[in-house]
Amino acid sequence: MANTTYDLHNPTIETLLNRRSIRAFADEPIPADVVDTLESVAQHAASSQYLNDWSAIRVTDPDVAAKLAEIGGQPYIAQAPLLYVFVLDEHRNAQIAAAKGVDVDSDAFTLNGSYRFSQAQNDAVLALHAMETAAYSLGLGCVILGSLLNDVDGLIELLKLPKYTYPVLGLAIGKPAQEPALKPRMPKSVQFFENEYPQSSDELLTTLADFDADVHKYYDLRNTERPVDAFSDQIANNAVANMDGRTVGEPAARQGFRLDR
């Protein structure tokens, strides 16, 4: 059998290798057929057990977008021509199950457990990533908005999210009005392992010095007026950062999820 030759520089790979977050957008609307295509691509992402347990809210109301920007602390959120919030969604499935005679308020109901919560969250992320990649392939730019989780309760109230739903991430899309440099990536030896996880911390840490220097240089060039710590220092700072208001347990419980089972 002849060996297969792979084109390692095809448009899909080039799109992914050149991915960068875009935080400044041209004041141009996204055509309806492009929006429809992006949403169709998201729907074709993998789905655990085919439960389709995610949804996305397209934000078109400027007031809602402004409130999202306030929650995220990032003004450019409100300026994005196309804006989504992806949510894990067992509400729809609960409604379907109830219509089939399932008591969704009983202990027999499992769609609100920790496993389905995590799998539905995964599904939402996969759908968002598919949409993001498709947008980049069309020459658009995106930024993923984890900052919307600064105030989960406020986000749930703003978007009127019902029981058995939970916000995952936002995605802002538009024609790029900037061309930032590619962010450095850590050495593969620190992130890809064979057969087992390295047992020695030396194996993980010895090759990070050059990466620290690359990251420091990247941030210095991006914003010369506000130096940013090297990668290792950023990790250390985040390891003891105050996470008040960003915990999952209590707001998830208020949304009907039981993460203890």
UniProtKB/TrEMBL annotation:
This chain belongs to which protein, by name? NADPH-dependent oxidoreductase
The residue range of the signal peptide is none
* Pfam family for this entry, one: Nitroreductase
Q: Which PANTHER family match?
A: OXYGEN-INSENSITIVE NADPH NITROREDUCTASE
Q: Does the keyword Flavoprotein apply?
A: yes
The UniProt similarity line reads: Belongs to the flavin oxidoreductase frp family.
User: Which residues belong to any copy of the Nitroreductase domain?
Assistant: 17-175
User: Is the keyword NADP assigned to this protein?
Assistant: yes
Q: Which key words tag this protein in UniProt?
A: Flavoprotein, FMN, NADP, Oxidoreductase
Q: Which InterPro entries match?
A: Flavin_OxRdtase_Frp (IPR016446), Nitroreductase (IPR029479), Nitroreductase-like (IPR000415)
In terms of superkingdom, the source organism counts as Bacteria
Among the GO molecular function terms of this UniProt record, one is: oxidoreductase activity
